[in-house]
């Protein structure tokens, strides 16, 4: 089944809710980056949280970049996503595998570390990019998104993100939910939701049991208490191309490019986000150098 994300509000108007099944999305990330269990969980949870955060933005066309670095063994994580269900990302150290924690789960907190920040940059068409960051709450990623929404956006929320990794490193299940409290929510209703979340099985268990995103939200709010507003496909998608990287290369110094031409008779670049490789031969690199010179001349 293809990955998708659902958006809903509760019939009492107190909550907004999002849920996503992202197994294929996280599987693509796992294969592209050859991630091992702890790295898969850390990158996967960040991809899932970012997808839902981007989907929760009202302005269409806005894109977000999420950066997490907690000084743990996986190093930095960078994820880009947009409101149309596209997400891409990478992790500094893809080959991290750790012993399971006390709850027999992947120790994401240890892998990510807690001495650092979660940073979100929002980019929309006609506005300057806006960045805000919060200290990491636990390095478990879900808690960190929750803390970010409460601190930076003043929206009391609950974020659950989960990735189940099989013994052969393939992804068994991946998904999550994001719940936002709307201004009219009563304390009673909020307590009830918190308790439901505590009582319900882990998200990865629900997904392994073939529960849908709709069913996950129904478990939290009850069957007839939701209006589903939208269902949107999601995927790991990178928009890089040989032409785009050529434009980036034309932005570096002419000296550097000429050294590459002389010493390597061309240049190869790898996309951080999807690991695609692009090779520019001598002739192509000469064209890039010409573009770089032109750029320099026109900026004078
Ligand atoms: Zn790419």
Automatic annotation (TrEMBL):
GO molecular function: protein folding chaperone; unfolded protein binding
UniProt PTM comment: Under oxidizing conditions two disulfide bonds are formed involving the reactive cysteines. Under reducing conditions zinc is bound to the reactive cysteines and the protein is inactive.
Name this polypeptide is given: 33 kDa chaperonin
Subcellular location: Cytoplasm
Main location class: cytoplasm
Keywords: Chaperone, Cytoplasm, Disulfide bond, Redox-active center, Stress response, Zinc
UniProt KW Zinc keyword: yes
Gene3D superfamilies linked to this entry: Hsp33 domain, HSP33 redox switch-like
Gene: hslO
Native source species: Lentilactobacillus farraginis DSM 18382 = JCM 14108
SUPFAM superfamilies registered for this protein in UniProt: Hsp33 domain (SSF64397), HSP33 redox switch-like (SSF118352)
Any single GO CC term annotated in Swiss-Prot or TrEMBL for this entry: cytoplasm
Cystine pairings recorded for this chain: 238-240, 271-274
Superkingdom in the source lineage: Bacteria
Task performed by this protein: Redox regulated molecular chaperone. Protects both thermally unfolding and oxidatively damaged proteins from irreversible aggregation. Plays an important role in the bacterial defense system toward oxidative stress.
GO terms for biological process, alphabetical: protein refolding
Pfam families: HSP33 (PF01430)
NCBIfam families per UniProt: PRK00114.1
Similarity remark: Belongs to the HSP33 family.
């Amino acid at each position: 089944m293809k990955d998708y994300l659902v958006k809903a509000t509760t019939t009492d108007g107190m909550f907004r809710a999002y849920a996503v099944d992202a197994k294929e999305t996280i599987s693509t990330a796992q294969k592209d980056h050859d991630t091992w269990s702890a790295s898969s969980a850390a990158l996967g949870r960040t991809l899932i949280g970012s997808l839902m955060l981007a989907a929760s933005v009202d302005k269409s066309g806005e894109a977000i970049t999420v950066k997490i670095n907690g000084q743990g063994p996986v190093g930095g994580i960078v994820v880009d996503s947009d409101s149309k269900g596209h997400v891409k990302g990478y992790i500094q150290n893809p080959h991290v595998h750790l012993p399971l924690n006390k709850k027999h789960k992947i120790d994401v907190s240890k892998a990510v570390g807690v001495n650092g920040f979660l940073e979100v940059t929002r980019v929309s068409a006609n506005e300057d990019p806006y960045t805000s960051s919060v200290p990491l709450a636990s390095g478990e990623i879900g808690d960190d998104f929750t803390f970010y929404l409460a601190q930076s956006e003043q929206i009391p929320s609950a974020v659950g993100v989960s990735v189940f990794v099989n013994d052969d490193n393939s992804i068994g299940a991946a998904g999550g939910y994001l719940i936002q409290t709307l201004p009219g929510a009563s304390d009673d209703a909020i307590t009830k939701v918190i308790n439901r979340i505590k009582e319900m099985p882990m998200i990865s268990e629900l997904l392994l049991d073939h529960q849908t995103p709709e069913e996950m939200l129904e478990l939290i709010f009850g069957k007839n208490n939701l209006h589903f507003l939208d269902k949107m496909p999601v995927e790991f998608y990178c928009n890089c191309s040989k032409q785009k990287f050529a434009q980036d290369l034309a932005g570096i110094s002419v000296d550097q490019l000429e050294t590459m031409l002389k010493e390597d008779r061309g240049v190869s670049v790898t996309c951080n986000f999807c690991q695609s490789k692009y090779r520019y031969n001598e002739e192509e690199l000469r064209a890039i150098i010409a573009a770089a010179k032109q750029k320099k001349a026109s900026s004078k």
